[in-house]
Design brief:
alpha/beta, Rossmann fold, single chain, 12 strands, 8-stranded mixed sheet, 285 residues, 9 helices
Length: 285
């Protein structure tokens, strides 16, 4: 059985699905995580693990001991005040002779608005949101550590995440969704299971210093996905009037996934929202 000693900064849906994937692949998992509230002993799908307090004000000192033991580190917590909290607090404890794999989960908001055109990993980063600006600064912090401290760091830029539990179908059923009709306004998305699969692939084919977009094959408008979801559920929805669209997300772009598909030789479980939403409706609705 393969062993992995992994420290997860943040334990949200991406980290949990990755750990679930490792379990399915019969890894013996030594897991540590962080929480913004308190330290505790926890259990996730039969895996006992330590959860350590860590927020922008303080952290449990026992965290450092476990971090130094880790050979894999997954960072999924957002920046605070445009600073990456992991780099700020723990970069001095990261040992290039011990750790084999550090993955920072960023976001495609670093690209900003590209007027509905395609972007890839070489496209200009010009964030227009505060979150996008903070993510880009965090990326640069990790890139500097990779270069100057010879640490094994890769960066994944995630598109909008949906899952079997959190998706447009759930929101439609709860009545939370209105039809947003904004012309030529494209977003990219990805199912959390595909993120977990690609993270797993990267354990076996890791290349330090690389950046990858994580998105499915079909960038689409909010209207297109909402209408498809409503059709699957046979629900009628209300259209938002044009004057209400002023505050709707101003970023429009199509995020290319060619690099990640080619490098990891990966075929998506859910290449578009169509396969993803059909699967969710048939199995979870």
């Amino acid at each position: 059985m393969k062993e992995i000693n992994i420290f997860c900064f943040g334990f949200g849906q991406v980290a949990k699905n990755f750990i679930k994937k490792l379990s399915i692949e019969k890894y013996n998992i030594n897991l540590s995580t962080t929480s913004r509230n308190k330290s505790s002993k926890e259990n996730f799908k039969g895996i006992n693990y330590n959860n350590y307090l860590f927020n922008s004000e303080k952290f449990d000192q026992n965290l450092v001991v476990k971090l130094k033991e880790a050979d894999h580190i997954l960072v999924s917590i957002p920046p605070k005040n445009e600073e990456d909290l992991v780099v700020k607090n723990f970069s001095k404890f990261l040992d290039s002779s011990k750790v084999k794999w550090i993955t920072y989960l960023s976001a495609t908001s670093v690209y900003g608005d590209h007027n509905g055109e395609w972007v890839n990993e070489n496209s200009k980063t010009n964030p227009i949101s505060n979150k996008g600006t903070a993510r880009l600064k965090a990326e640069n912090s990790w890139a500097s550590l990779e270069k100057n401290n010879k640490l094994p760091v890769q960066i994944f830029r995630l598109s909008g995440i949906y899952s079997n539990e959190r998706n447009i179908l759930v929101r439609l059923k709860s009545g939370e969704v209105k039809l947003i009709n904004k012309k030529d306004h494209y977003f990219s998305r990805i199912h959390v299971d595909d993120i977990a699969n690609i993270l797993f692939k990267s354990l076996l084919k890791f290349k330090s210093g690389e950046i990858y977009n994580l998105s499915d094959d079909k960038p689409s408008s909010s209207k297109e996905i909402t209408l498809y979801g409503a059709k699957l559920l046979n629900i009628k929805i209300q259209t938002i009037k044009s004057e209400m669209l002023k505050n709707f997300n101003n970023e429009s772009k199509k995020v290319s996934n060619k690099k990640v598909k080619n490098y990891f030789n990966y075929n998506f479980m859910f290449p578009s929202y169509i396969e993803g939403l059909n699967y969710i409706r048939d199995n979870f609705m």
